[in-house]
């Protein structure tokens, strides 16, 4: 079959790879009908995530049709259209049973790297390096889905692929961000980053009753998309974000700060130059500009909810602010399984429509071009989605 492979830093190529088959009794094989780019893929493309190997198939946000099931698959059926969660859970360990699916103890067969770097390893993720399981990703004609009964969710007939595909990753991630922040009526929420994840965190915060959401980015079309949903917006190229947030909240600061940027945070001025140099020299694994800002801006006693992906160590991490302001700092890879059934149901009722994120439908053959547009945020690209 054809698949979009990572072949080196900033190098992708469509290659012929072996068709996946059933390896375990609880596996299914899914024929992919739509597979999206995600900000997390950029960290792989840019070479910041170790344990990638030339030939690894990328992609973790996808929808498709079940074409084969193992003998222990009880719920899913051949012919069903399914959204598959980007995070692979086993459904049976302590963490999966607690709803903390991205902390699954069983799905990652290569836990050693993360055990060494973080103390413990979490769940595997499709197409996300060998440290996170070494599973082939979804930018391909077919993908093997382990523990299919718990990781594949049937899509209601009236929900198009263009929306259902994002129920795999961007929508549940955004939802989790608001949920971890315990967003509720009366809250002011600030969201750093207006990519697919930030947009969905904005949507979720508004749906959970936030009084006001302030979305921060520098790309006009992304800010316009957040404004369209009802957010106030700040262009960090134009304003001093910390000053502006103070002004907008009567000096108090937002109740909940959702960070949806991650380890490749961009910025302005000397601090950004400093962070880039330290990152390039591998003196830090992650750039912390937006994270520092979120912590600095947050009101006393508020919650900083981190959705952006971080790998290891951030330089100049403001621990004093976390401690002295009594902040709650939370984060996780998404516990998607907790939210996906609700999201698909609300998509079916017309209450959630994620399809505006799909700005660039493309053929798999145009994968390199799709990633280039997505990475450079050219041509208004919010997410390029491949239809193998
Ligand atoms: N926790 C999870 O399970 C999970 C799931 C999906 C994605 N992610 C992570 O979420 C992050 C965002 O993903 P995405 O798909 O939306 O990516 P994206 O690249 O489409 O969007 C990131 C946005 O952040 C903006 N940005 C950069 N620096 C900024 C700054 N200093 N202040 C404000 N905005 C800034 C960029 O302009 C861009 O619009 C990534 O780190 C990704 O790895 C995490
Ligand atoms: Zn993702
Ligand atoms: Zn588990």
Q: What is the CATH homologous superfamily assignment of the largest domain?
A: Medium-chain alcohol dehydrogenases, catalytic domain
Structural class, from helix and strand content?
alpha/beta
| Gross CATH architecture of the largest domain | Alpha-Beta Complex
Principal-axis shape: globular
- Share of residues in helices: 25-40%
Protein name: Glutathione-dependent formaldehyde dehydrogenase
Cofactor: Zn(2+)
Keywords: Metal-binding, Oxidoreductase, Zinc
Domain Alcohol dehydrogenase-like N-terminal: 26-151
Question: Outline of this structure?
Answer:
The protein is 29% helix and 22% strand. The protein has 388 residues and is α/β, with parallel strands linked by helices. The protein binds nicotinamide-adenine-dinucleotide and zinc ion (2 copies).
3D architecture notes:
This protein is of the alpha/beta class and 388 residues long. It has 2 domains: 2-169 and 334-387, Medium-chain alcohol dehydrogenases, catalytic domain (Quinone Oxidoreductase, Chain A, domain 1); 171-331, NAD(P)-binding Rossmann-like Domain (Rossmann fold, 3-Layer(aba) Sandwich), CATH 3.40.50.720. It is built from 14 helices and 18 strands. It has helices at residues 39-45, 94-97, 112-118, 148-151, 161-164, 170-180, 196-207, 220-229, 241-248, 269-280, 289-297, 319-324, 340-348, 367-376; strands at 2-8, 11-16, 28-36, 56-57, 61-69, 81-84, 87-88, 124-125, 142-145, 152-154, 188-192, 212-217, 232-235, 256-259, 303-306, 328-331, 358-363, 383-387. The strands form 4 sheets. Strands 3, 5, 6, 9, 10, 17 and 18 form a 7-stranded mixed beta sheet that branches. Strands 13-12-11-14-15-16 form a 6-stranded parallel beta sheet, with helices on both faces. Helix 6 (170-180) crosses helix 7. The mean pLDDT is 97.
